[in-house]
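Researcher: Last one for today. Full complex below.
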Amino acid sequence: MKVLVKNCSQQKRMIEIKKTLKRDKYLCLMVLPGFILLIVFKYAPMYGILMAFENYNFGKGILGSEWVGFLHIINFFKDPYAVRLIRNTFLIGIYSLAFGFPAPIILALSFNEIKNRYFKKVTQSISYLPYFISTVIIIGIIKELFAIDTGKINDLIVFFGGERTRVISNPAWFRTLYVGSSVWQSVGFGSIIYLAALSGVNPELYESAIIDGASRLQKIWYISISSIKPTIVILFILAVGGILGNDFQKILLLYSPLTYETADVLSTYIYRTGITQANYSYSTAVGLFFSLISLIFLYTANLVSRKTSESSLW
Amino acid sequence: MRKRSLLQEDRIFDIVNMFFLLSIITLMLYPFINVLSTSFSMGDRLIREGNVNLLPRGLTLDAYRVLLADRNIIRYYLNSIIYAVGSTGFSLIISSLTGYALSIPHFFFKKTMMILMTITLFFGGGLIPTYLLIKNLHLIDTIWVMIVPVGLNVWNVIIFRTFFMQLPPSLRESAFIDGASDIRILTKIILPISTPLLATFAVFGLVGSWNEWFSALLYLTDNMKHPVQMLLRKILISLDFTGVNKEIGGVLVVKDQRTVKAAVIIVTAAPIVSVYPFFQKYFTKGILVGSLKG
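Model: Here's the assembly. Have a good evening.
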């Protein structure tokens, strides 16, 4: 009797499953290519992380290579450059945040206060443009502008009585160039979202403020900024969470062995040791370490935001 | 008395604000003007008189002639177009299909797929494992490596999905009653409505892949397959001028590298800049759709 019942309910299940599959068959087809891409290009590499714990040999593959456990990670920490790399990664991230985060907000506020619609539109359009120019072009322009012998900036320095200075190959200037060009590129585009939030502010608030005798600056501080506070907070959380994610491509283009002192970050080191030097296992190990700290940052940032405000990522 | 000083303060603020914005705009525009003028300048005048301030030093098309005399540049341009259109088109199809399927409430695979996708937003294989995977798949040095791997853009899928979920269910239901299949509904009804979203993603996708150089550096060893950004990188960053002849017909045409560098910048940025006014309206609205609803 029991066997019969089991078969009956099993059969029922099979019919249910078949029905669902039949109903959703086109949906399955739609999802299939994306699913394959996901597995192949996003999940398969995760399996490759095992390389970090082996002495990976391309011929032997992942399963055939010798297991060494945490050897590579420990070697990384023993590396005299490890401290420099971590320090640079953090500093570049912090400077980018310190200058790059307020800039779009200030620009948005500035746009918001313009009364002439034509002027507003034109300046906005121009400000978005740098965002669409490729990094290669921007770094190329920087290299031209700051060149020691023919660069415009050095021309200006000489004009004001100074001496021609090395800028591109000077580690002391690297962070300035990096953060400066990043802000130049993204401030316009970044202001869009704040401007959108600002346009949603109730104009009656401003009017009542005028009646109360508020000055221009007071209006900006107490009304404009307060109204977009939720937007600011959530974008700040996201920014802090991603603080270690510097624009590695830009650094790769802008740096040189002369500027490694301040320019070399974890991602560029991973690139050099992995691709240029083909030290696969070591590079993967450093990469894993890097991903884990980034995750911790993101998680902590989200935790903080959940405790302090209503907005959070999850 | 109070009123008058407030009015004055208002006007001062406006003037200061305007100057502030004007200086920002100058800072943004000046590099382009400088480069544009340099590209039309005569090399020897640059050497004698120094850098361009605003206007070109002499007017000549020499730098451009040198560039176009290099047969390869047409090849690089074509490659860039193929990669841009190919990867963006492919990605749009995959992302919208996936987004649509995931927006159907009764789809049994919905939750699994969403979780799988969101995980990849926070954690990934990393540079080396991905590189070795591409190598193992024999995709190195093929045009497909620039088109296929980026096919599933998780952010786009999520935004598509949210957008589709916001559409009134009656749209689908009435089509079902009329006997349409899922695919029919998608192509005839849903996609036409989503054109703003599609256009926005198309714009960002095209610009992004036009500007992409790092994948080419990593995965394309054959010079002939390089996109235009790689030529840029060669000339601007590595300062490698081999292959770009400074002579035409044996006569040294370009006296100074700066003009050629400037010309190659203009030639690469030109497509983006010239199409910019047209697509500008798309992305300002598109971002809002994505962010407000996402």
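Chain B touches chain A through 88 residues (CB under 8 Å). Residues 164 and 190 of chain B are 8 Å apart (CA to CA).
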